[in-house]
Structures are given as C-alpha cells and as structure tokens.
Automatic annotation (TrEMBL):
Gene3D superfamilies, A to Z: Spore Coat Polysaccharide Biosynthesis Protein SpsA, Chain A
Glycosyltransferase 2-like domain: residues covered: 7-80
Protein name: Glycosyltransferase 2-like domain-containing protein
Source species: marine metagenome
SUPFAM superfamilies, A to Z: Nucleotide-diphospho-sugar transferases (SSF53448)
Amino acid sequence: MSQLTTVIPVYNGEQFLESTLKSVASQTRRPDRVIIQDNCSTDGTPLIAQAFAEEGFEWCRTESHLKIEDNFNQAMCYASETDVLHLLMA
C-alpha cells in the first residue's frame, strides 16, 4: 500500500486547526504521516499543533513568516516519496 501523507500548511488557523486535525485522526484510512507546517503563527495555533505533535503528528514551524506559496512549498519538501493529500487551511 502506498504511503499517505497529509500536509497542512497553516497561519493563524487556531479557529479551525483542532477540528481539522481531529477529522484527519478519525479517518478510516489514517495517514501514515501528518505534517503541520506552521507559518510563524501568532495566535493559539502553536499550542494546538504541539498538543497533536505529542500524539504522533509532525509539527514544523518556520523561523520567519513566509508568503503562503513558500510555506506550502516548504511543507511539500517534508512529504517526498509519498502519495500526498493536500489539506489546505483558510
């Protein structure tokens, strides 16, 4: 079976991140890897991401704020050699 990776680029997504991550975790076919790419958020996003990192999700945080497409591209670098599901945050 192919490896499935869910990539979630996020910036200040506190309002929706927890429900998104719970939804991903409850899927019948749970991803092999879940990567949360935090674009230097200033709200509660890091706390939510850190809590899910303790449950096996991967949390990566940029050192400085990037343009949305650069954050997305950086997140994709972590998902090489997989079949990738893109899950975008608003």
